[in-house]
Amino acid sequence: MLGQAVRRFTTSAVRSSHYSEGPGQNLPFSVQNKWRLLGMMVVFFGSGFAFPFIVVRHQLLKK
């Protein structure tokens, strides 16, 4: 009884969604242009990697 209700809800929720299907369609960024994606990934991961070094430099130069 409960399983049928859950199944009915999930199938109706999937049916009523308006998102297109396919690889990369459910991501919050575009994967169509590989060079733009590469640039965005370098900035994102590079900033996270550089942040501790910038903080240490700031603390060492602080008087």
Which helices and strands appear, and what pairs or packs with what?
Blueprint: H1 2-16, H2 34-61
Membrane topology: Single-pass membrane protein
Protein name: Cytochrome c oxidase subunit 7C, mitochondrial
Region (Disordered): 1-24
Q: Can you tell me the overall shape?
A: elongated
Radius of gyration: 22 Å
**Element-by-element helix/strand order:** HH
- Which sheet architecture does the biggest sheet show? none
Percentage of residues in DSSP E strands: under 5%
Helix/strand/pairing category: mainly alpha
Which stretches are low in confidence, meaning pLDDT under 50 for 5 or more residues running? none
Family: Belongs to the cytochrome c oxidase VIIc family.
Pathway: Energy metabolism; oxidative phosphorylation
InterPro entries: COX7C/Cox8 (IPR004202), COX7C/Cox8_sf (IPR036636)
Region (Disordered): 1-24
Walkthrough of the structure:
By secondary structure, this protein is an all-alpha fold. The chain has a domain at 32-63. Helices cover 68% and strands 0% of the residues. It contains 2 helices and no strands. The chain has helices at residues 2-16, 34-61. The longest helix has 28 residues, at 34-61. The radius of gyration is 22 Å and the shape is elongated. It starts with a helix and ends with a helix. The relative contact order is 0.06. The model has no long low-confidence stretch (mean pLDDT 84).
